[in-house]
Amino acid sequence: MTIQMHKKLKCRICKKTIKKNNFKLCLTNAPLIDDFILEDSSEQEYLNDINTCKFGKCGVVQNPSNRNLSEYISTYGHFSSAALLTKTFMSKMCDNLMLFFKEVNGRDATSVFEPGPGDGVKLAYFANKGCFVIGIEPNQGLVEASMNSGINTRQGLFNRSTINSTDYLSFDIGVTSYTFDNCTDPLGFLRVANLMLKPNRLIAIEAHDLSEIERRSEYCLFEHEHIEYLGAHSIEELLRFSGLRICRINPIDKKCIRANSLVKRACKTATPFEGIYKPAQRNPKNNSQCNNFNLIINSLVARVYKWVEQKSEILVGCGAEDRGVMTLTQLSNTQNLKKFLANEMEAQMGKCS
Ligand SMILES: [Zn+2]
């Protein structure tokens, strides 16, 4: 596939032009996580550096590259609803939002939308409570999987074209998991979400928490597909600018929340602000500044590499999911590590040898 690279890079939020001191982390020669080619294929593998930046004006950590991934995204089929923890989380999230909606609005919610619903499992919990549901999903295969399980799903990206039809303008609840931090126009995404809700209606956004990514040195999460890295302060400010006021952070039991997830539950209180984005409050000093990101992450990669090199045995790295691919891809040029792309089930069954 051909991916276009545009030279002039700007912040996706405040539109500031990128400067050298904005670069916080570089992972070199990284592939796309869901674009596998066979070893004997004549197709060229896509490899490029992932540069992650932080802009002083808005404070949002992001990958500013303007690569056009729309063709790839339409075939990108990653979802994680098979895990029991994920299903428990989705079920509890549904219960929480339905209950809170009733407290605020004095009636049961009757309609729910989800940008990036994957195979539609989360929406099914709402549908089972009698709600009209609709998912907006770019991947054709996932749209079919979702429709086959009875979940109304439209193929496409979540953007202005979503609300061309007035049928999309009066929902009670919006919910989305790990989709907002992959979108190339975060303020556009929140604007559309706002316009699909009436005042006092709810939205819940699940994203990876930057402070947890940093605390755990999770370099595997820095992918071409992952665009924004959001902490609590960044999401709150972006929501506020988009007319969505935070009601609760992590509204369900932390034990049921996935890994480094940050869940924000917000109410629509206004129409989105117009003009250039500016946070109302500066990022608190105790929040992540990402200043030593390159050092911390690359030191970790170097330590893992050294550990692999010191082994007398040949090690096998398995993984065809996003984190597995990114973990292995930074451990190149070592003779002691044979890398295999396999899903977890195949690895457990010993098919990888
Ligand atoms: Zn900015």
Concise synopsis of the structure shown:
The chain has 353 residues and is of the alpha/beta class.
Task: Provide a descriptive summary of the structure in words.
- With 353 residues, the protein is of the alpha/beta class.
- It has one domain: Vaccinia Virus protein VP39 (Rossmann fold, 3-Layer(aba) Sandwich), CATH 3.40.50.
- Helix content is 28%, strand content 21%.
- The chain contains 10 helices and 13 strands.
- The chain has helices at 70-73, 84-105, 121-127, 140-148, 186-195, 210-216, 232-241, 293-310, 322-329, 344-348, and strands spanning 23-30, 48-54, 61-62, 111-115, 132-137, 153-155, 171-177, 197-208, 228-229, 244-249, 261-268, 315-318, 337-340.
- The strands form 3 sheets. It has a 7-stranded mixed sheet, sandwiched between helices. Strands 1-2-3-9 form a 4-stranded antiparallel sheet.
- Strand 12 (315-318), helix 9 and strand 13 form a beta-alpha-beta unit.
- The longest helix is centred in the N-terminal third of the chain and has 22 residues, at 84-105.
- It starts with 22 loop residues before the first strand and ends in a 5-residue tail after the last helix.
- Mean pLDDT is 84; it is low at 348-353.
- Zinc ion is lined by residues 11, 13-14, 16, 55, 57-58, 60.
